[in-house]
User: Fold these one by one.
Assistant:
Number 1:
Amino acid sequence: MRVGIADRGSVRVVTLDNPPVNALSFAYSAELLEAVRAAEADANVRAVVFTGANGLFSGGADVNDFSTEPTPETKTVRDVIAAVEAGTKTYVAAIDGNALGGGLELSLACDYRIATKASKLGLPEIKLGLLPGAGGTQRLPRLIGAQAALEFMLKGSSNPAEKALKLGVLDELVDGDVVDAAVALAERALASEPKRRVSARKAIIGKGITAQAGPFVVSAAHKMVPPEENGGYAAHKLIDAVEAAVELPFAFGIAREARLFEELVRSEPSAALRHIFFAERELNKVPGLAAAEPLTIAKAGVVGAGTRGTGIAIAFATAGIPVVVVDSNDGAVEKAKQTVFGMFMYQVQKGKLTQEEAWKRAQSIVFTEDYAELADVDVVVEAVFESMDVKKQVFARLGGIVKPDAILASNTSTLDIDEMASVTTRPDKFVGLHFFVPANIMPLLEIVRGKDTSPQTIATAFKLGKTLRKTSVLSANAFGFIGNRMVIDYAGAANAIAEEGVSPWRIDGVMKKFGFPMGPFAMSDLSGIDVGWHIAKARPDLVTSRTHVVDRLVEMKRLGQKTMGGYFKYDKAVGKGREPIQDPEIEALFAEEAKKAGIAPRDYTDDEIRDRLIGALSNRGKDLLEKGVALRSGDIDIVYVYGYGFPPHRGGPMWYADHAKSATASEELTHA
Ligand code: 3HC
């Protein structure tokens, strides 16, 4: 950790150098503050250029510090920015790489901002349940207008430098050395317009929008974000801060922002989101893996052109990896080709891909029925029917065709990886790659380690996951791995409550209110009631249901959305047949079956429903941790947030059970 100081004539270059991301921690801010004070006190220094070492400007404030209560002596990035603001020198930000959060806010306090084209600028605080708390909410509306600033901060995404220039966040883009350009700019500015503090400007609503429209823009923003109690806590406060920027003098706005920020730092949603941030960065820290050199995956194969296989093929093609898809079913291949074509066309229509790029990607997926075409691929992902026998046949066949150092992977969602590996001669190169459906969209990848899977194969799987832009979580080889094993308990608990007379509609409503995009019954309808039924038949030891409701649904051919009826009804005229409609017939079915089984009705409060369902998840999660199926409880949280729609602002089932104020003790495990 050091602050680089180098004088170029009367311009002082101050380099942020706090690896890995030049985070502006309390300790580092104290050093930086000293550097600013020294520059201000030095009569030979007329301008200061801030820049960053380690390939970026700065990743912002140190997120670890938010769990520490600052003392009166603590220095933060706000103190550095206040010193710049009050200073007499000209300040220039020279950005090369990421300038995020407090890092970007430091540059907003400067008189000029320039960046290389490869730079990315953003205020991602909202993703941590915070608002930009070092002047961002006050300076950005003054710089680019409140409307654009709201969009910038509420999305929290990283913006390419060109977009930032267009918005007015940057003054210039630079081709060559950004520091040289910044020094030259500082020298020019000293001769013409040395002081250009953003704070001196008046915030506007937007280009061509009158000040009278301010209240409408603010109220529209409040309406667009989720409710405060359900994922929108920080967003509403952020909008309040921007409103202050429009209505109040700068100093008052800064004070308002600081107060709102402090409230958020202490809030439960922010603590939960910060947990997710760090849990995500722990995922690939797997003991024993550091020395393993991942293999290169230049070409891939997929066996099976069904929904899963097609999604996986699209994911490879999107990442620039050519892929051979083997399937002998002409109908499936035809449908897959249409899906591939439709998907890339959609991206062209949305302006996300050029026609040429879409064509190139679609062409990089080759369909064939000839296994021999897999001879030169580096990885094959099997995505055939979920049957051990069928999968074993595929792998036995692949063994003799695919080159010896290629990795063989199964996309099974529940089955035993070791049993499949046993039919190959390369169990060390065998791994589970459990993509979620649709694989080209869902961000989660479960990497399943068999008993003989080598560290190199696991390292390669993690690297591949990154290339495919997936969030990868390691699981041991156990039935259902992490996610699906837990979902069995979750669905089981929902079923048990319905058997006690609470309607599936109400149970789903409670979980949606909690923040899930859909409840457990709508989820079963989406994945197919027959899928759960097959699992129950294969593993009767995992079944908790005391009634025959599921058997009856299967008999009635109510298999979920695909048959326009499951636990709920579906109607093509309502949400294109994807919107669940409450069905009294199924409520009566639960009552009838419960009566037959001698189950007495019981009243539940909404909180009890929530706690029983989340408890089912967290109790199974604890069991999976004890058995070593999951490495860390944070890994389980990531699986649920990225794979099953658990609301991130609740931290995942494990974090929620351990930390949330509203969570209460949950039920015990009923099955091994
Ligand atoms: N605080 C603390 N640690 C951070 C950090 C931050 N802001 N940003 C990154 N790190 C740590 C990571 O935890 C990781 O640590 P590890 O090596 O021990 O696992 C290490 O830095 C490298 O991070 P990544 O693996 O994410 O590295 P990448 O190169 O993939 O990405 C990045 C770099 C784009 C900077 C990315 O880390 C990132 O997006 N960071 C978070 C940015 C952010 O949210 N900033 C806002 C902070 S809040 C703020 O500024 C408040 C202010 O308004 C007052």
Number 2:
Amino acid sequence: MPSLAPILAIESSCDETAVAVLRSPGIILSSLIASQAEEHARFGGVVPEVASRNHLLAVDPLARRALEEAGVSPAELGAIVATSGPGLAPALLVGASYAKGFALGLGIPYLALNHLEGHLLSPFLGSEEIPDHLALLVSGGHTQLTRVRCAGDYTVLGRTLDDAAGEAFDKTAKLLGLPYPGGIVIDRLAEQGNPDRHEFPKALMEKGNLDFSFSGLKTSVRYFLEKNPSLAKEPGDLADLCASIRKAIVGVLLEKTVRAMELSELYEVAVSGGVAANSALRRGLQDLCTSKGWKLHLPAPELATDNAAMIAFAALHHLLAGEQSSLNVEISPQWQVGNR
Ligand code: KG4
Ligand code: ZN
């Protein structure tokens, strides 16, 4: 990969304001995150207007600090990139507008990047080659299986028809009375529990189906708790419930990954997105790849959840191909990645 002046990336699609400075082929000079999770926890989920206001307060000081930590002056930057979708419109607007203003002021290229592309390539940050592989993207807003032939060539093989895997964790955690974001809490409690104590439904398991559906699981947990309210109270019972819920979600993810790998005749698999931090999923994928002889690519934990280094890395591939976006380009809250 030829070299390029350092780039500044801004990520503000949800409740994290993130800024990174990266030099090709993937050297992170700085990567900072200002999380608002605690503020949204009061509401049990992300409130778009609250997120927007917090991005507005955080983005400029964070960008200045990121440049300072990277030892890069604005005049040395080669381009500025921002997540332009998918995500919450009022949140995306802040990062994208800030980045455009910055690029306009410096007279350097601006690039609007797809957040999902950032996640997809995150397991390869720092590598010069992206192999032909299957990508399991599992985050709070998205769950999809994509064939990635190389950077820029994405074919979606399956995706969720309703809730994302992270959303399934977060919504069931809420039903259990656990704090937002609940994925990590369920994961931690599940480590002490018995995953075989309760059986929760797995949807769309018929042969050849690569799509996902997690809303039935959430409903089934709700009915279960209405019938057995005491089982979410005692720590041992709660741990068993968390382990059984995690087993249902992770079980579907693993099974569909195997199907997609076999159908596509691929030998390398990558996982990305916040749920890639899940311990049962990581263990399951590791065991699977050992038994099948597949190569597993996992992002570093700090690159699995939302961050701007992954946005900068994915942007590099576009910038090196000579692409840039017009300053008139609008944010795309529903922007998908790949064909189907
Ligand atoms: O990628 P991400 O930071 O944001 C989105 O783009 O959505 O993912 C956040 C999601 C949340 O749903 C969170 O609960 C989930 O990732 N998550 C986990 C774990 N850590 C984060 N889910 C299960 N187990 C974890 N250890
Ligand atoms: Zn994300």
Number 3:
Amino acid sequence: MNINANYLNLQESYLFSTVAKKVKEYQSANPDRAIYRLGIGDVTLPLVPAVIEALTNAVAEMGEQKTFRGYGEEQGYAFLRSDISAYYAKKGVDLDIDEIFISDGAKSDIGNILDIFSTDNDVLIPDPVYPVYIDTNIMAGRKVDYIYGTLENAFTPLPDKQTKADIIYLCSPNNPTGSVYSKEQLKIWVDFALKNNAVILFDSAYEAFITDKALPTSIYQVEGAKECAIEFCSFSKTAGFTGTRCGYTVVPKSLKRNGASLNTLWLRRQTTKFNGVPYIVQRGAQAVLTDEGFRQTRKNIAYYRENALLISDTLRKLGIWFTGGENSPYIWFKCPNGMTSWDFFDFLLKKAGVVGTPGAGFGKSGEGFFRLTAFGSRENTVNALKSFSALSF
Ligand code: PLP
């Protein structure tokens, strides 16, 4: 018996545990000091009434003989896939419902999709990054290369003549940097993938935060993407489903490699290893896409966006370079006075009582940067910013 030794190559993630430890230590030494947390990537507003109503109705159905449901289709109920297809149609993207797979959130599918790819593929991951992309590849023993986000490229790195990749991860709006690729920039990636026979794994978990009509909310708004991209999305940040769990993955039928349809491979994978998302949850997710559910969930997003704009305004006034915050819940900024990410973390905690996330925790090129999030309450955000603004660097 041998274990999968690739797991031994994973780096321990100390980011959030170190943040929690430092905050706890500071709090016990300064019990009267107010602490404002702008570090969390989780939503704080409750599910909207339209979702609660749909969930409640579905619970009642499950208790009646006539409407009870057992196993559903592994790829999701047609009612939800059809409404997601209609949501894409409004974006100008035509999707057959068989191209949509309902998941229990984007994280699982982002990891699981690797089942359908060979382990000898070259993987290209932007740094700084959502760590799941890296760890799931290390677990499978794949070689990972990085493309670096920098101040110069405003954290939207693009391929150059030296770039090589079979699998490319892109996340837009980005976690942790909040940067968003334009259509023209995504076209460069799509053309690169088509030319190199590569596949783009496009994470659009934060697409609902985009309000600038010129920016793409789906990679399929870019010509050629259906021949080279898989898209992952989620109701987590769109509708506060982080604890309810529902997302979806789009695998176009026209996406083929080695003569095989990736849609067929993914369907085979899902029907073998997955038994679907609860009926009740899928009814809740469907409610997000109704007129009323959409209006209510977008109101919550507007609340978070308002927090993001307050954070951006403060940074602008302080003359600090930042990206994100406009079409994203994340704000990514350069630590003042050339401080390292962790030095700035300590400084901000001790001088202002504000907790953020050090950029270095998201990868090498995150060093010297810092992430704040807009998912807190308005009161907490305003108080944190008041305290932050009073600092002198
Ligand atoms: N993708 C990104 C970039 C994320 O930041 C997150 C969660 O924070 C996810 C995916 C996972 O979302 P889900 O809750 O749908 O699993």
Number 4:
Amino acid sequence: MTRLQSPEFTSRRGFIKASAGLLAGTAAFRFPTPAIAQAAPIKVGFMLPYSGTFGKLGQFIDEGFRLYVDQKGGKLGGRPVQYVQVDDESKPENATDNMNRLVGREKADVIVGTVHSGVAMGMVKVARDTNSLLIIPNAGVNEATGPLCAPNIWRTSFSNWQVCQPMGKVMADAGLKNVVTITWRYAAGEQMINAFKEGFQANGGKVVEDLALPFPEVEFQALITRIATLKPDAVFAFFAGGGAVKFVRDYAAAGLSKSIPLYGAGFLTDGTIQAQGDAANGIRTTLHYADNLDLPANKAFLDAFLKKTGKDGDIYAVQGYDAAALLEGGLAGVKGDIAARNALVAEMRKVKLDSPRGPMTFNKANNPVQNVYLREVRNGRNELIKIAQANVDDPARGCRL
Ligand code: PHB
């Protein structure tokens, strides 16, 4: 049983509480003085999917974050860390309530979440209204670091534009001319497909048809049959988590992987590769990570993650780990005073991470600037082929900061 399954549920709505180093801070909560208040725990509110098609992804983000904190002796900015978790179930309709509860009743000092772009939109709106500190450890929704950017909203993952636009040139350079796209019909799917098309069409490629099904459906058969009929040079896909496992297996089972190569955003094969088995062999994707990045920070991270969890790390674990690293970087400069928001944000802006993914800085909209890698599935791993585009900066369209 993992740590996530064991903590007590405190309400019907799926809140889970767990804490580290809490007892020492009890008196300080009642009679705070500046010095003692800083020894009080920092409350981290995880709002992540712990169930459903993205359940494993949320769990890995959580575990990556906790690994970093453990490596710092259970502290961030010199203060013990207390966690509260909510399973957002990747349901946008519950996002506002869940977020309000973490910010309001739970009084979390910082919210870390989430995976799903539609849920993240709801979180971003509440974060803006309440001026809460939010670190997005996955969801790529462009608006979060675009028109809805704000000093209190940060991302340690990617924008939907950032990871897919570089694939356009990669596929055009590979001589692929006619491509079919396929995804779930929701913000992340639409934005990733649009970004891919932007890059592909600018390099002379043609998208012959866009296929989509509602999130999180996995009845792919009719769409796979349509691909077989259209016979494009290649397919570009965005699916993730459980849905990606099924799509890749169904695609291979239909015999298409031999005749119509499958490309995609790296989420198609990250965190899913073991379950996909041989069906994933040869799939090429772009992402801000590859399993075998030959970097000391990556090797140390993968070793530590395996030691702590018994599992192979992936991009989701990296993004969670880096969310804690970003927070630590900011808190170090304000001596753990998470309430000193302006100073904290100024410190966070200066953070340069030696991430397992490679060097990482933040742009003016608080989105990572990072390498995007071309990978291919070989031997059950997402192996690096080359840097598809170095230091990719999201254009932060519409951000006025
Ligand atoms: C998203 O909804 O933004 C999303 C979800 C899962 C991923 C990547 C992006 O793996």
